[in-house]
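Below is a concrete protein record.
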Amino acid sequence: MKHKKGGKIDVNGNEDKNQLSSIKNALRILKSFTMDEPEKKISDLSSSLGINKSTVSRTMKTLASEGFVYKDPETKKYRLGLSILSLSGVLFSNMDVYRESQPVLNKLVENIGETAHISVLDDLEVVYLQKVECHHPVRFLTHIGRRNPPYCTSSGKVLLAFSEEEIINNVVAKGLTAFTKNTITNPEKLRSHLAKIKEDGYAFSLEELSEGVNSIAAPIYDYTGKVIAALSVVGPKQRIPIHKLKSIAKQVMAASKEVSERMGYIKY
C-alpha cells in the first residue's frame, strides 16, 4: 500500500477516485433541487440521479451536517440549507454584471412597467441571474436560477447570436423542441434568425416559449467587447403588443448599453 497524507490509497489511487465520486454525487444532488422541485426525498434523488439509496442517504447526512441541506422532520424531505444562501451572496456580491445592472433594471422596470431580467448562457441553457418585478407581475417561466432553452427566449437568442458557431451547432444538435406553434424548430430558419438578431442588436420572442408571453432582449458587453449576458423585459402580449416592440426595444437597448458601459465597455 502507498501512503498519502490524510489517508491510504492503493497503487491505482482508488481512494482518490472514491473521493472524487463522492464529491460528484454531492454536487449532482445539490444541482437537482430547483424552484419547481424545492424538496425531495432520498428515494426521489436515488431514482432521478441513478445513485443507490445508501449512497444518497450518506451524502445527504454529510451535506446536512455542513448546512447545505435541511431535512424536514415531519415530511422527511430535504431542501437546500442556509449555507447555499451564504455562498450565493458571496457570488452575487462579486459578480460585476449583477451589481452594475441593478440600478439600470430598476429604472427600466419603472419606465416600461414590465419585469426585467439579466441572464447568461450556461451549458446550452439560459440561466436567469437577476429579476426585477414590475408592479403588476404575471406568472412567467422565469425566476432567479431558472433554466430555459435559448432558442425560444429573447435573451437566449441574443446570447446565441453573439456566440461561437460551435455553441449554436450544439444547441441545434440537442434538439429544437416546439413549446408553442411559434417556436422555431427549423435549424436553418434559426440560424437565419440569429444572423438578423446580430445585425439588429436585439431579439424578440413572440409567444415562442409560453403562449401569451412576449419578450425583448439586448446584449451586455464587458470591457473586452465580448457579450457576456443579456438584458430582457417580459410581459403578456396585451402589454407588449407587436406594434410596440420596436419602441420598447429602443429602451431595452439603451439599458443594455448603459450596463455595458458600467462594465467598462467602450464602443469605438
Remarks:
- The CA atoms of residues 161 and 193 lie 9 Å apart.
